[in-house]
Write a structure and sequence with these properties.
Elements: E1 5-11, H1 18-26, E2 34-40, H2 46-56, E3 60-65, H3 75-85, E4 95-99, E5 103-104, H4 109-119, E6 123-127, E7 129-134, E8 137-140, E9 152-156, H5 157-162, H6 172-182, E10 186-189, E11 196-199, H7 210-224, H8 228-239, H9 246-261, H10 269-285, H11 287-308
Length: 315
């Protein structure tokens, strides 16, 4: 199997941003073997733009879904992703990436990710870092090194299959990385200049408002099992970054509201326990040290899998 990679891009009404992403991908130093773009019922000029690019580039394939009447983040995005995955055989590709259409990527982005994954076979998922344009400056979205970011989830296909793919819920892009680490894989992102990309839409602002998005994020943290103290510390940290104060407050309220209502949590109790244990380590040791220690600890799980071919797929 060669180092071919598959891109799958769910989208809806992305005419404002998508040309930047389309141009970024078609001008990559290594272009994808296949790019499935799932139009999830767009009502703007998205279909016309997609048609123009698919006519020009034979590796682009469009999948069209019925209009659901609104943008649906979390579950809706994952449903659209799997609608794209259904039209290909994932085993034909070494790597798979869920890619949003509101990004500007550096030209060597995917080539460098594949090089780093080939250099370290334990890396299951990785990404660069997102930045927002604010005036004449680029400002980091402050994503942790222990996660691959949701707008460009680049996966080794074997790892993606072992974790059971994505969970159809808001916190899918954190649950997957915790599941990777639970099974011995490494999940990471790098802030190297050649892997920095521009996120043309502020995190969590794609539905209603950025504050609604932060409340949704708080619910997602509750759903995956995050502890109250860790959530409070995370929310305070987010108050120090745009949107200042109220963004972090909205996150914490989203969590508290879910806690008060006793909303059901993610069904995998072992993973929730694994996440809480890791979060306590982060509070006590700092995230970088806690992640390094856990990755070293989980190496035995990955080595056993590599040696004996144990089936670690999610049930």
């Amino acid at each position: 199997m060669d180092d071919s990679y598959l891109l799958i891009s769910p989208c809806r009404n992305e005419a404002e941003f998508m040309v930047s992403t389309l141009e970024s991908v078609v001008n990559q130093s290594v272009t994808p073997a296949k790019w499935i773009i799932v139009d999830d019922g767009s009502t703007d000029t998205t279909p016309e733009i997609l048609q123009r690019y698919s006519d020009q580039y034979d590796f682009i394939q469009i999948v069209t879904r019925d209009n659901r009447g609104h943008r649906s983040v979390g579950p809706g995005v994952i449903e659209a992703f799997y609608a794209g995955l259904e039209v290909v055989d994932l085993n034909d590709y070494q790597f798979v990436c869920k890619l949003d259409l509101d990004l500007e990527l550096p030209a060597g982005y995917f080539e460098l990710l594949m090089q780093r994954m080939n250099n370290n076979p334990r890396i299951g998922t990785c990404s660069g870092k997102p930045y927002n344009q604010r005036g004449s400056s680029l400002v980091s979205e402050k994503r942790g090194d222990e996660m691959s970011v949701g707008m460009t989830k680049f996966y080794r296909t074997s790892c993606f299959q072992q974790i059971g793919g994505f969970v159809s819920e808001v916190m899918w892009d954190a649950i997957d990385c915790h599941r990777c680490r639970q099974l011995g894989w490494i999940a990471c992102s790098w802030d190297d200049p050649e892997l920095r990309f521009v996120h043309l839409r502020i995190m969590g602002s794609s539905q209603d408002s950025v504050y609604r998005g932060r409340m949704r994020h708080g619910f997602g943290q509750y759903f995956m099992g995050t502890g109250l103290i860790y959530m409070f510390v995370t929310s305070v940290y987010r108050m120090l970054h745009p949107p200042y104060i109220f963004g972090g407050m909205a996150m914490f309220w989203g969590y508290l509201e879910s806690l008060i209502k006793q909303v059901p949590k993610y069904r995998d109790k072992q993973l929730r326990k694994f996440i809480r244990s890791y979060q306590w380590r982060c509070l006590l040791l700092g995230k970088s040290r806690a992640t390094a220690l856990l990755d070293n600890q989980q190496a035995a799980v990955w080595n056993q899998q590599a040696r004996y071919g144990n089936d670690l797929r999610a049930s």
